[in-house]
Please model this.
Amino acid sequence: MKLAAVLILFTGVWAIGFAQNKTGKNNAAIIIAAKPMTAADSGMVKQLFFSALREKTIENTKLAAELFNRVLQIDPTNDASMFELAGLEKARNNYPVVQSLLERAVTVNPNNEWYWIALAGSYEKNNDLSKLENVFNELIRLNPTKPDYYYDKANALAIQKRYDEALKLYDKVEELAGPSEDLLINRQKIYIRQGDVKKAISALDELITANPTQVKYYMMQAEIYNSNNLNDKALEVLLKAKNIDPQNGIVHLALADIYRERKNTEASYDELEIAFANPNVDLDQKLRIILGYVPQFPEPNARASALELSRLLTIAHPANSKAFAIYGDMLLQSEKAPEAKTAYKKAISLDNQAYNVWEQLVRIDLSENDVDAAIKDGETALSFFPNQSWMNYMVGVAWQQKNDCKKAISYLKNAVSLETQDKDLLTQSYSALGDCYHSIGDIKNSDGSYEKALAINPDNAFTLNNYAYYLSLRNEQLDKAAQMSKHSNDLQANTASFEDTYAWILFKQKKYTEAKLWIEKSLLHDKGNSPVKTEHYGDILFFLGDTDAAVQNWTKAKAQGSKSPVLERKINEKKYFE
Model:
């Protein structure tokens, strides 16, 4: 009886008759046993194999894989089926199985170059460099005059920091295929990693001599000089590059860096202007440069430079939303809100999916008290981004300012339902809900909203003031109202409206002397000559027994445009009325 043949593969280093095992380490054997084959078996194998190929051709990959596996059940050493199965498994991204099949294939047939090439790809995928090196050894054995295999092995060695070995192989590649740009660049990279600046520069000198108009080589050389603190040399090389290609924006950016390091701010900025006006320079790179100015913005020149560079972006990239968005940001930083608004609108017209731009636009609308624009822009933004909590809040505030509290409540409720983390937004939303519910007479929900706002942030001065004021209007919980009002004044001193609220609560508590002190503070800090505060002052003076001064202030409040329904009666009858 004929004995079954046995094939052995040591993974990591191939160790059959064809392998060169240099280290002898970490070797695990793969054993493939060949079954005795009858003539019928051989015929069946051929039939199944060609059927599998046919199914593969018509992309019936599942059946093809089944047929190839049936081949291997009959003939475990059928390397062609292993190779074909590996291809099918690769299409399914099943890389461990791919690697196993290819290792078996080269074990059975170590002289098939395609098997080794495929296995190299598998090891590259897994970054298994030690095994990859062995594959290139086998490929070189099979085809010793092909430079690609030496080149790929050299690259693998370079990654492992085996630089001297890699350089020798690059020499072998040059011997077989002649000098090339790739070889010079790869050598230059190794010299840099070895810290041999002189050789790195020399390699680039060769490239420049062979390609005197290729600016990229001058750039690479300048980078080496600059990274080794040889700024004068770097500048010299960059100026040569500038003379060769004056329109090259990357050269101007590099010159800007050099001049900045040399503290020549004016020359640096001049180079930046040229680069920014060039539409071929990457926009995102320009954006990063502009954002680099932001930390310097307390300095006016930095702000002005960023503004001008962002303006140049809109000229060089007139169809790019990002250019107008950053221009809007820089205009806003320069306190030019109307111009920023125009830039943001242009950005949105180019890309209506830029949410941050919509938010900036609506914030400007509100800051300009353009409530109608805030509603229009905000609701348009929400048609694209309905789940943005801040946008819902801002539209709610805009409707609140339009005195449409029902619509405001709808948006404000959206804001609190969408947000769970932003305490500032939640506080402001609940506080605004408190104001809105009060306006429509829903006291329960008003108080509840204020309580929620203060539970999140007990130090929100506006919430404290408004809640306290509305309690005082209802003549309820005056001690609590006084405590909240006093706290708001401690948090934000010299605020006329807060001082007026506290004075009014003290008045309600019949603490007229203290009330007089606080209303006078309020009037001192009031820049708008509020008739309400003036009327309150008259009320307090009346209860302090100074009727003439009270009438005088009531009359003044009337002249200031007071809408108080009882003011006329107070003046005529010289008496306080609720």
